[in-house]
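Predict structure. Chain length: 343.
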Amino acid sequence: MVRFFMLRWLVVPLVALLAAAAAFPAAPGVAASPYDGEELEVLRLINVYRQQNGLEPLLLSDTLSVAAERHSEDMARYGFFAHDTYASSYYPVGSEPWDRMAAEGYDYNTYRGENIAVGYDTAAEAFGAWRNSPSHNAAMLDGRYRVVGIGRVYDPGSAYGWYWTTDFGAVVDPSAHEPGEPPAGPEEKQEPQARPRDRAGIENGGMGSQEVWRQRAKDGARLILRAGYARLGEYDGGRDELAQRLRYQKGDRLSFRLRVIPRDGLPDGDRLTVRLTDGKGRRLALLGRYAPSSVAPGRWVPQSLRLPDRLAGENLYLSFHAVTDDGGLTAFHLDGVRLRPAP
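Prediction complete.
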């Protein structure tokens, strides 16, 4: 049985959620303690669930896990169940989730959120409680999040025994990694690699890396996902563009695969346009326009668009441009972008 934190005086499993965007400067945190099997299992359950819904899996952030684990410890030790810190061995009283995250070093100006639960022994129980609560479920299926920190604590002398905290963030921090792998570390310490050139044709059409494509997102997120496709949209007031140089011959066609995932119905204002632009972003030709109802939802659908002969041989930019309104959210997924020559 699931009950929200306003019933926290009852000795039954409880869940609660908080999500927002904020940033606060703070000192970096230390590495998280080793993850137990149930913590790794809840990550697996969340990521399977996200992939079933067309979303990228989350990386495990050690920095966020410090904040999550310490909040779980505080709730158990000091007998409270809330997102704000009532008493703590680590943080000032009244600290909110983003205060605790920032105190450990996750101080990015980005979307952050938190799910908490108490009284659940196993990952399956905690995950099931969150999934069955609309607000907690929305946090686990928020496409803006890239990383998660997990803290599960047991205190036999506490009111509820088991305490769970999961902290979400939209920026991949240096402590983030796949389960069982070490953190990548700060990007500036990695060896630089030669960047492939953006030539006349289409490079990296399979979205196998971040190279070649120019990515512009209003929320600052990377559009090309680790799963090997690009995702545009899926947040309120979104403005995303994926572009690269293009020069083609008469009779050539543009092909790609498109998957549209509408959430909360079919929002009329969301759209994806495929266009040719000049070097200053001015539209020279509209190749295609897609709304949430344009293709079968949730399925990869091949697309083939004829390129205008009048612009053949010109130095252009191919642009995929997504606009999402403040209503229901739509995700536009792209893959397999190719230039097909005339027969």
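Summary: The longest strand covers residues 330-340.
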